[in-house]
Amino acid sequence: MTIKQVLLKGKEKLKENDVEDESLISRLLLSKILGIRKEELIINLESEVDKEKEKQFFEGIEKIILDYPIQYITAHKEFMKMNFYVNESVLIPRADTEVLVEEVIKICKEENKKEILDMCTGSGAIAISIAKNLENTNITAVDISKEAIGVARINAKELLKENNIKFIKSNMFENVDKKFDVIVSNPPYIKTKEIDEYKLKYEPRLALDGGEDGLKFYKIIINEGYKYLKTNGIIVLEIGYDQKEALQKLVNENNYYKESYCIQDLCGNDRVIIIK
To answer: What pTM did the predictor assign?
Structure first.
């Protein structure tokens, strides 16, 4: 089969199984397997595809139909205009999280914040994006998973000219021993019983499970975070679309914080809470 025929058949299989973005996914998968850029597929549509490569392609299509993320097959996900390496040890970065990163960058520029802690760093997307956009910052990135820390280190080495990020394996604040201007986090926040309702079965449960009420890690960050903040320090958290009131209640019950406010994502959902 030619590249054109393979792409068309892959696209049809995906469409038949209600997989969105079937054309893009088909191109991404084949370009990965052939080791060429997507643009090169277009100028080589009549080229024959090796039988073994063809077999790999359709095996990949079948996995995607079963909700296996294309990002794990290609091993990359774009975030904040950078190409991050990802594997099954880390959550795949989402576009919604760019709202969180942009807010932290804005706050740090306006208030001259230099010391930043990224809690639950995963692939390192948040910490690295902040480092890329802010000069003279000292960033500490924490995760309980040594495999995730390994992925984050790879991304930092690949994407940053000067790597000013200190990576620490830690169960939340356990191995953190200094104070920061800003604590930022996109922690696990899906309720345990609701995880299976999402198409996330191949992503690490450790990075998804927020406990019975989805607030397990928020409670830790809010109840203990003040100990790791400098005077006038700030906590910036990504939240689920329906968690604003619960989070603000947690903040109001804590005497260590002055105020909190929430900003929305591009779809109008509550997405980021800022605690001062």
So the answer is: 0.93
